[in-house]
Amino acid sequence: MSEIIKIENVKKFYKQSRALNGVTLSMNEGDEYLIRGASGSGKSTLLYLLGGLDRPDEGKVIVNQKNLVDLSDEELAIYRNRYIGFVFQFHFLLPSMNCLDNLLLPARLAGLSKNETAEVKERVLALADTLGVNHCLAKFPYELSGGEQQRINIIRALSLRPKLLLCDEPTGNLDSENSQKVIQLLRSLAREFKATLVIVTHDPQIAQSFSNQILMKDGMLVSA
Amino acid sequence: MKLQRFRLFLTLFFDNPTTLKFALGVLVGMAFSIAVILSTMGIMDGFDRALKLGLKRSVGDVAMHSRHGFFNLNDELKTKLEQNNIQTYSALVQSESFLIYNEDSRGVLVKGIDQSYSQVVGIPFSLTTGQVAIGSEIAKINQIKKGDEIVLAFGKGNMGLKSMPSLERFRVAAIINHGIYQKDSRLVYIRLDEIQRILELKKKVNMISFNVPDRLGNPDIANLEKIESFLPLLNRQFGNDYFFKPYWREFAPLIEAVRAEKVMISVILQMVVVISIFNILAFIIFINEKKSKELFLFKALGLSKKAMSDLWLNLVFLIWGLSCLLSLGFVQLFKLALLKLSLFELPSEIYYMPRIELYLSWKDYLFVFSLALVWIMIITFYLLRRLKQKSLLEGLRQEFA
């Protein structure tokens, strides 16, 4: 498989603290990766840099042969919209919109045409059917259970067929049974969409099933 | 594409009554501020316009006088006028006089006119011998009605018995309203042949009123430049024997003062607009705080800073557009109040006109609307720069932690 992500000597500082201190690694297209480490080890920061939510202070973050550091704000926004699917620990669903509108949010922000939006709608409806949250589409997020919210969140992340599915503690709010289900779901969907899956977690149970593991400590890679 | 995003933005923002009420307040405040400036300018322009219209109704576009006093409107003079394309003109005699009625007398300016004068000033006169038309304020002050008999006392100078006036009786056939207090309280019209007979002038006159070419029946009196530019041409053609006074000349300082005041007041009243723009800023800050979770999520899901700024600017532009539209309504209301309510009637003893109508040209609207937009844009740009400072990740962590 070809290399899709290359991170070279990336450093990131937040005020006085060093979040990342010279991280170098690479990831292959379509593979599954798990980043683990204690709280404050820099794993989420690494994920956010990969997702274009932030820029490194030093080093290169090359995704699909493009250095994200060189992208303009506009290009980075397009990258986040078209290339990345985010699944956060908190569902990040907008309380003022029903679930279907929440699912179509990335498509609307992308300014897709009517036909393209209709295609996205078809896709999210099919996914909702697969994930068993069809009945939730007309409801508002606060009317759903934690598991349902997370599944809606996953559908939204996949709505524009991203190449990179980035998940930050996706099971942080779920019990162990539901956690396993969500991870299985993410892995199967990533395979179906041919997306590279990167999951950040500190849950050792989840880590057991991943062959590509990146362990982080104090902003540095301990093992990859 | 952008419209879809903007609709999404609006749906998100106006999803609760509080934001809607706030927006409505901002809109009304802004519209009212714009309307205040427009109305002030409208009053100034209305005053200017009413004054000029009134003056024009009393003299035509230009008054021509001889430096030698009385003169004959002979064929040579007529040819000269016509060579300069002056088709609408009227020769007249104007003389100071005293109007006596019920043992009261007042100084008036008597104009001896013929039928051609109606064409020049746009007031229909049809006087027969022994008839007089008087200004409406003279009628009001001296309680003269149509059909009443008045006496006009003309000075005779060195003719006949020295210093003895010539007293002539006339019947009031019409009461004329020029729209200007000073004219309505002073002008009296009789037939030209009659005043020539009384003053023993034969066929002589002391003034010619005329309209400049292409202005016959043209109600646009704002274009003074055209008349101004015509005057040097006339001076060259007629030489030193005659001089020309445009209709606004006697009120020129007042018109100039009104114009200067209009500019100054418009500038000062910009403060009102700026204050209401702070309401818009408060509204933006309010939404930005209230919906910051949503806004940071929008950014995380692919909305660039520029696109976000564009959405804010579109919102501000929408508020500005709706405010401008609403301000037109406020201006119409004020216009109606100015015309109908006695509260807004001016004391005619002090002002030249009893009522002023709002008059606004498209240039006034353009000036006020675009200046308001400039202010809004300047202040909004500054605010947006401040709003942009928080990083996306910082915002996401704060809002969703």
Main features:
heterodimer, A: 224 residues, alpha/beta, Rossmann fold, 2 domains, 6-stranded mixed beta sheet, 4-stranded antiparallel beta sheet, globular, B: 401 residues, alpha+beta, two-stranded antiparallel ribbon, 13 helices, 17% strand
Proportion in β-strands of chain A: 25-35%
| Overall mean pLDDT of chain A | 88
Q: What integer value in Å does the Rg of chain B equal?
A: 31 Å
Overall number of domains of chain B:
2
Helices of chain A, by number, come to 7
Uncertain residue ranges of chain A: none
> What does the overall shape of chain B look like?
elongated
According to CATH, the homologous superfamily of the largest domain in chain A is: P-loop containing nucleotide triphosphate hydrolases
Question: What can you tell me about this protein's structure?
Answer:
- The complex is a heterodimer of chains A (224) and B (401).
- Chain A has 224 residues and is of the alpha/beta class.
- In chain A, 37% of the residues lie in helices and 28% in strands.
- In chain A, the strands form two sheets. In chain A, strands 6-7-8-3-9-10 form a six-stranded mixed beta sheet, sandwiched between helices. A four-stranded antiparallel beta sheet of chain A has the order 2-1-4-5, with helices on one face.
- In chain A, a hairpin with a 2-residue loop joins strand 1 and strand 2.
- With 401 residues, chain B is an alpha+beta fold.
- Chain B has 13 helices and eleven strands.
- Chain B has two domains: 2-53 and 254-400, no CATH class; 61-246, no CATH class.
- The interface between A and B is medium-sized, with 26 and 26 residues.
